[in-house]
Amino acid sequence: MGQDGRRDDPAVVARALVESRFRGDVTTATSLCAPDIVMRIEGSYEAHGREGLANLIEFNHEVATNVRVEIHRIMVSGDTVAMSRTMFLDVDGQAIELGAGAFLTVRDGLVREWIDYLDMSELARALGH
């Protein structure tokens, strides 16, 4: 979470979740989520609950190295956070750069839903799919 730890600001909560997910910090990421969170990578994957998100983070940590994320823009309207970002990672020695858009729903200081929109084809190729 940000220096001030403000869970009343949806942008702060969303940023902290995304940054902790790509750092591989399962404890922080799951603490920022509602117990029944739904995390969907549109068209390819859906995780349910904190355990599902933890499994996704752990899987990503197993298959990718040198992972980092750059958040470019965050906009908030009510309890909806829109975000654009770029993820950088290495998979089987291949450097991959993935741009993504996301919508996160934040209520009562917790993320309830996270929907990512990105082209997974380069990552799928690197994984041999």
Automatic annotation (TrEMBL):
SnoaL-like domain location: 15-114
Write down the superkingdom of origin: Bacteria
The record ties this protein, via InterPro entries, to:
NTF2-like_dom_sf (IPR032710), SnoaL-like (IPR037401)
Annotated Pfam families? SnoaL_2 (PF12680)
The cross-references to Gene3D superfamilies, in alphabetical order and at most eight, read:
3.10.450.50
Protein name from the UniProt record: SnoaL-like domain-containing protein
